[in-house]
Design brief:
Elements lengths: L1 H13 L3 H21 L4 H11 L3 H4 L10 H19 L1 H30 L10 E8 L4 E4 L3 H7 L5 E15 L5 E8 L3 H5 L5 E2 L14 E4 L1 H8 L9 E4 L2 E8 L18 E3 L14 E6 L5 H18 L7 E6 H6 L3 H32 L1 H9 L4 H37 L2 H6 L9 H26 L4 H10 L4 H37 L9 E5 L9 H16 L4 E8 L8 E6 L12 E7 L3 H4 L4 E4 L13 E5 H7 L9 E4 L9 E8 L14 E5 L11 E6 L9 H11 L6 E5 H5 L4 H35 L1 H9 L4 H30 L15 H27 L3 H7 L1
Parallel strand pairs: 4-9, 6-8, 15-20, 17-19
Antiparallel strand pairs: 1-2, 1-10, 1-11, 3-4, 3-7, 3-10, 5-8, 6-9, 7-8, 12-21, 12-22, 13-15, 13-21, 14-15, 14-18, 16-19, 17-20, 18-19
Helix pairs in contact: 2-3, 5-14, 6-12, 6-14, 6-16, 7-10, 12-16, 12-18, 12-24, 13-17, 14-16, 18-24, 18-26, 18-27, 19-22, 24-26, 24-27, 25-28, 26-27
Length: 883
């Protein structure tokens, strides 16, 4: 036994394992000593003697309390201490592994927490699985998700499928009083809404049935945030009067802090208060409302749709204008996610790929380190350690790495969530109940679970491969610098996997970049650059026709006189941000068949609107100050409407009437101009028919809300904000200026989801590319180190430098090309899942696939060339002398 130990010491000194050997000898002597204990020998005395014989004074001073520690506890503690010391010695390996794991775990945790908040977290209502959103669809026209009318709500309540059905309508509320003027999103809600959701107020009560009437007592319910901000959390606010839109309301309740707006569309602004007086009338056919219903338990979806369709047919017979409309209900859980589900699922797939790449990278590092420690493992076995004992030690090291990576991953996840909050569009945040920048217990548990899973994934396989029982062969391979075939094949497979996953991520990021490029290249039909917008809500008495016209006329005149202003105008709604679909009748076709009445976006504007928005006027004239209530009713239509209604004819002089054919209260409007078609619903929805009417002719119909100001060349639009707000306050100090933003910000809204996906996919793809390159480098670099003898012999036998480079680069290039090939096939299959996110580019875009393939090839060649240069520096004389 002594001779074997002497020879092993000599072999390990040549491989720089002297320090670890002494510890290993002591460790296995101690294991042997425990066997003596089981045989009844004086284990403690023998243990001291063994430690003294090895000269290890520290371990010889065993404390008395160790007697009470179970043998497996001592083993685990010793494994842990040895693992920590070993990892601290190899700082480069430890740092790379921990950072890689932290990145994978942190990114995964951040994305998973977002997906949970948006798609999986239960809604904060009573029995949310029975809640549905009820809207309307018109299959003949291809319309979906349309608001409903009071007639629909009243009729559908008779369908006997709902426990309750409550209507509400989004609005804007201007609060005035001693606390100053402010505008807040609000809702006009039925008294049925809050009991249906199963939510009770924090203090006070909800609305009564009497307060639902349009002429009844006006009541208001505050959100918790508004109650804190405006009333200082004073419970005495209940019963106090508050002026809302010029009308006095009585505060009757405050909703709890956790109350969420998830019963409505995520695209709707989050209300800060609710007011009564919805006043549903059986004669009201205007689609002004949204509704949420609670289904009766046990009612099948097919039964619900059949019952609602039958009621809709009855409504259609009583109101021909509603022909073709049918109810459309969707589970509230699905509505809440909006159209974010495809984007989030794509990100889930991407972040799982990042985690797999990180695990593969760390597994490669562990395999390289484990192969380098093959002699150390052989010594352990020679001293009596079994395969499980070696596997346990290596798994302990993997566990330490995983725990360190998981702890750092929690920090990365916190940063990642904060980054997501800054990237995400507002409607995603509206639908993410409970998502914040703070890490909660669920996310922490998820990070720990991922850490444990990755421990098994990247720790078990390397440990098992390195626990080979053939000690003699292992020592021979180590002395010759050979890599075991099993280790080589496993590392190669990991490398191919990394490159393939990186290929998929890079293709996804490339497709999103191409999508945004295509969307930015689209001509919107107006010029958003240099335009500032803000909203001035005129409600209550301020909405009287005479006051509306005078206010906007004075404001536009004073704003246009400000330095740095080129032009200004007013509008009801902005391109991209709003759509107000209305039926209209062409005088040339006054009796369209039921269900085929044409529709268009109805836009109320002021003089100089087309000049301010730089929207071209193809023929005719713009509106001017003479288009008032006493003049000829006029309208400007866009090219799309003119093309569809009067093909091959001039639209100037034609007449249309807003509303359905049965409506007689609307006047005929004469077309005086044709504007260019603008993509006012964003690039993805193309152009639609639009009509523009001057607000001065119908100030009683739709009151303008938006002021649009074009800055003079060389002036930043945002710099005009303060002076414009001052002009508004000068005209009316109780009027707030809200939603102040540039038209460039408005025009970018439809691309918000794509920008978020592109940014995250681009980041993930960049990380994947770096990790794949590092994987190629580490595999080849280690291979070069193991094959020094081979390269020395080749050079000694006459091999040229180019031959050596070709040998190294060729091996790495073959692995990279295999990964690229696998990645191409996977990308062709998986990018089809992104079709809802793409615009102007097919999922199998050859330009993207070609560019990504070229990038990966170039990166792989660079990663291969660096180790190849190391192979060129091998001196055959030194290598042969060493042998």
């Amino acid at each position: 036994m002594g001779e074997l130990i002497r020879r092993l010491l000599h072999a390990l000194k040549r491989n720089r394992f002297e320090a670890d050997l002494a510890e290993e000898l002591e460790f296995h002597r101690a294991m042997k000593q425990r066997d003596y204990e089981h045989e009844g020998l004086d284990g403690r005395a023998a243990g001291y003697a063994a430690r003294r014989a090895l000269g290890n004074v520290e371990l010889a001073q065993e404390r008395a309390r160790d007697v009470w520690i179970a043998p497996w506890c001592r083993d685990a503690w010793q494994d842990m201490r040895f693992a920590v010391r070993s990892l601290i010695k190899d700082r480069a390996f430890t740092t790379a592994s921990v950072l890689t794991l932290a990145l994978g775990i942190g990114a995964t945790t951040a994305i998973f927490s977002t997906v949970y908040a948006v798609l999986l977290q239960p809604l904060p209502y009573r029995d949310p699985q029975h809640l549905v959103e009820v809207l309307k669809k018109n299959p003949p026209r291809g319309w979906r998700n349309n608001p409903i009318s009071a007639v629909d709500v009243i009729a559908w309540r008779q369908a006997n499928v709902f426990e309750g059905l409550a209507a509400f309508s989004g609005a804007s509320c201007v609060l005035t009083g001693s606390a100053g003027a402010e505008e807040d999103p609000c809702e006009v809600a039925e008294s049925r809404l809050f009991p249906l959701l199963g939510v009770t107020p924090f203090i006070g009560r909800t609305f009564t049935a009497e307060e639902d009437q349009a002429g009844g007592a006006r009541a208001a319910i505050l959100s918790y945030g508004l109650w804190q901000r405006r009333f200082g959390s004073d419970a005495a606010a209940i019963g106090r009067a508050i002026e809302v839109n010029g009308n006095v309301h009585t505060i009757v309740g405050v909703m709890p802090a956790g109350f969420s707006h998830l019963y409505a569309s995520p695209y709707a602004p989050v209300p800060q208060l609710w007011v009564s007086g919805i006043g549903l009338r059986v004669t009201n056919v205007w689609n002004d409302y949204l509704a949420v219903g609670r289904l009766k338990p046990g009612v099948a979806a097919e039964s619900v749709q059949s019952a609602l369709d039958a009621v809709s047919e009855q409504v259609e017979r009583a109101h021909p204008d509603l022909k073709g409309w049918r109810a459309e209900f969707t589970a509230l859980r699905n509505v809440n996610a909006g159209d974010t589900a495809p984007a989030l699922l794509v990100l889930v797939g991407a972040v799982v790929f990042v985690l797999l790449i990180a695990c593969a990278n760390v597994a490669n590092l562990l395999l390289a380190r484990g192969t380098a420690r093959a002699s150390e493992m052989a010594v352990r076995k020679a001293l009596g350690a079994g395969r499980w004992r070696v596997v346990r030690q290596l798994l302990t090291e993997s566990a330490v790495l995983a725990l360190a990576g998981g702890a750092l991953g929690v920090v990365v996840a916190t940063w990642g969530i904060e980054g997501l909050l800054s990237l995400a569009p507002s409607y995603l945040l509206n639908s993410a109940h409970g998502l914040s920048g703070e890490l909660d217990v669920r996310i922490l548990l998820l990070a720990v679970g991922i850490s444990i899973a990755t421990t098994v994934l990247f720790g078990l396989a390397p440990a098992w491969l390195n626990a080979r029982p053939d000690v003699a062969d292992t020592l021979k391979e180590t002395a010759r610098g050979a890599m075991h075939p099993r280790s080589h094949r496993f590392r190669s497979a990991l490398l191919v996997t990394q490159v393939a996953l990186a290929m998929v991520l890079l293709v996804g990021a490339g497709l999103m970049i191409r999508t945004l490029t295509a969307m930015n290249a689209v001509n919107l039909g107006f010029n958003p650059v240099g335009v500032l917008t803000l909203r001035v809500p005129l409600e209550g008495s301020r909405a009287e026709p005479s006051r509306v016209a005078a206010f906007w006329r004075d404001l536009v005149k004073s704003v246009e006189a400000l330095p740095g202003v080129h032009s200004a105008s007013v509008a009801r709604g902005l391109p991209i941000e709003s759509w107000n679909g209305q039926f209209f009748v062409n005088q040339d076709q006054p009796d369209p068949p039921p269900g085929h009445v044409p529709d268009a976006n109805y836009v109320v504007v002021g003089p100089r609107y087309f000049e301010t928005m730089q929207m071209p006027l193809r023929v005719g004239r713009p509106f001017d100050d003479h288009d008032t209530a006493g003049g000829l009713p006029v309208v400007i239509v866009n090219e799309e409407l003119a093309r569809t209604q009067w093909p091959g004819q001039t639209a100037i002089g034609k007449r249309i009437k807003m509303g359905s054919p049965s409506v007689t209260t609307w006047p005929w409007l004469t077309v005086v101009g044709v504007s260019g078609s603008a993509m006012t619903q964003g690039p993805q929805n193309g152009v639609r028919a639009e009509v523009y009417v001057p607000y001065q002719q119908f100030p009683w119909l739709l009151v303008p809300e938006h002021l649009v100001v074009r800055a003079s060349p060389g002036t930043e639009p945002a710099r005009l904000t303060r002076s414009i707000v001052a002009e508004i306050a000068r005209l009316d100090r109780d009027l707030p200026a809200a939603d102040i933003k540039t038209m460039e910000e408005v025009a970018a809204m439809p691309m918000g989801q794509q920008r978020m996906v592109m940014a995250l996919l681009g980041g993930f793809a960049g990380v994947a590319l770096v990790l794949a390159a590092l994987g190629i480098y580490s595999v080849l670099s280690y291979s070069v180190g193991q094959r020094r003898r081979e390269f020395g012999v080749r050079v000694a036998l006459g091999a040229q430098q180019a031959d050596v480079v070709r040998l190294v680069v060729g091996g790495g290039a073959r692995l990279a090309m295999a990964g690229i090939g696998v990645g191409l096939v996977a990308a062709l299959l998986l990018t089809r899942l992104m079709i809802d996110l793409l615009f102007g580019v097919p999922p199998a875009d050859p330009i993207t696939f070609g560019a990504v393939s070229g990038l990966l090839v170039a990166t792989s060649l660079v990663a291969c060339y660096v180790p190849a240069r190391r192979a060129l520096r091998v001196n055959p004389v030194d290598v042969l002398r060493h042998e």
